[in-house]
Design goal:
7-stranded mixed β-sheet, globular
Amino acid sequence: MPAVNHPDYNNELEKLDYTLKYIKNYNKNIINEKSKIDKEVEYSVQHYNSDNAEQYNELLINSNLQEALEQRLKNLNKSMVKPYFARVDFIEEGNVDIQKLYIGKISMLRNEDQKLIIVDWRAPVATLYYEGRLGDGLYQSPEGAIKGQIKLKRQYTIENAELKEIYDIDITTNDEFLQAALGASKDKRLKDIVSTIQAEQNQVIRADMWKCLVVQGAAGGGKTTIALHRIAYLLYNYEKTLSPKNFMIIAPNQFFLSYISEVLPDLGVENVLQTTFEDFAMNVIGKKLKLQNPYEKLSFLVNNKNSKSEIIKTISSFKSSLDFKNVLEDYINTIEKSIIPKEDFKIDSFVLIKHEEINKLFCMDYKRLPLMQRINEIKKTMTNTLKYRKEPIINQIEGEYDRKINEVRLTMRQSPDRRKAIIELASARDSLIKKVKKHFKTIIKEYLSNLKILSPLEYYKQLLSDKVLFSKLCCTYIDAYTAEQIRGDSLYNLTKNEIEFEDLAPLMYMKYMISGLDDKITVRHVVIDEAQDFSAFQLFMLKKLIGSNSFTILGDLCQGIYSYRGINDWKSVSESIFGEDNYSMLTLEQSYRTTIEIMEAANAVIKFLNDPKLPPSKPVIRHGDAVKVIEKSTLKEVAKDIGKTMHLIKKDGFKSAAIICKTLEECTKLKSDLNSCGLNIKVINGDESEFYGGVALIPSYLVKGLEFDVVIIANASKYEYSTDPLDVKLLYIAMTRPLHKLFIYSVGEKAKMLLHLK
């Protein structure tokens, strides 16, 4: 309700004024403190002495403090506009005093008595707001469960430091405050949801960091936003041991990363690594390779359902599987057996290390290491052996020749021949010692020069070039014909110096196993969005590189349009990668994005998958216009009608809209027709690095994770969308993008999946 109408308005206004004044005063103190630190850092940089360790440590400490104060100022500036968004009144069990907890994006303590003015939304006690109901409540603290009574839950709308609305609530799912938030128009960026986080979302955000968390989330369930809030939460709770640079977000493309770019800064978090799997993989591989556009393959599969498309799916599926990982592992085992030459490590006739021992070191003792690192370890062993044996060998040579010289002295009479023999033996001794000493300097390099290790890419090419070996290694998993199809297709790409998306994980594996990483990976926790499109091999490699189970994996199997190489069952993949006891799974069934009418229409479509493991999404109780299918004879007629629809959209004040075609080719055709109608709308092809909002003309496979006020599906005819699983998912994805309105056009008869719509 309007704040002025609330019976507690004057008290709340007084509290807001007090809080704002305190923040402003605190802000001034931080500015002064930062100014002093800035001067100290500037002085230290200007007078830096690299030999002064104390000065270096002081500069490092002050630089970190400077960065922390700068971030604190950014957060305070935001809080001066909106210091908090909710309040919970709580009486702990055994106490009589009511704690009035005001919840915001940052915490604020009063200096004089350390009393909380604002509670950070990530603090354990804030769970009372997100999950508790009036009456008995509890929250988990480091000391254990804190029980008590929740006496009040209240939400505020504060804009530009003015108290606009106050809502007294019990639960947050169906309240007016949530309805107002969901009903707002969408602009070009994803926003934070700290004030409207629901109980099921809160459980995802606060789940254990060190155990893999898998989230199956409905379209519009807030998976992406929740993942970003989870990072902010984890950083808050592990601030002493982790920094933003220890977290990595993997998103579908740069375009999507641009779309989510403002959420973490709004939550006070900067410098989290945000990347795509392609970019991360290329960085690990360390070699610039030409990557085929994965959307081109998907587009072909969308438009073609024949024997060739089935072969393409089979190739992609196998190369993305753990079976192919096993093939490469077996291949590396064959490589390692041929690395060590069948020669002893010796000087002259002195054997330092037998071939069998070197081979054992390489193939068994150091097997946990990449091949190149194994050689480094063997080099260390050789160096130590040489150091240990050097003097004894010289002594042994001297001893043997001394015995020979003594034998000459004892067995031969004084004569020129005797002197000559002694001189020759002494000369041979000195010559051999000189030779051995010289050889000491080069023997390791000479031996190791015979150990030939190729680059990961060269080994990958060699495997694909060897028809017999490839077939032999694959025979456990696939037949010879399929193996040859995979080998031939992959080798053909490599001869053009190209790789496809499915080669990235294999090449990362080869790189890791053969030469190791060029740079140490400091990431401690990985968040994967749209994870249903990840393969088992990709997840395996990420886990191997990170070296822990600290993952947050979010996706929706209903939107798995790369199912031929992606994930079709969370349980089996999670157990195979992380182990049965090392992952947990949560489900987000509630959809907060769209209206009941739109969600019910989309749920009717996804039923055509006939998969009982995929429960229908449950929409929040928010009604809107009915979804209608408008049949036209041609795409030109559709374009003309879209022009009228766009006029109505602008008139209604909506900020964003998407015109979704099934493929990029269809987008290009429609753009031409829209241009003829006076509409100049940009086509999104997936190569963009920025998401500009407004109106977008975009293919169905690029809209995952995005949302718009209004969506127009350009052509959902029975010729475009069959009941093939891929078509079902593409149509479902398109239908679940709008917040408010959905228009569906059809050139000719509408798809079978839409027959329930009038």
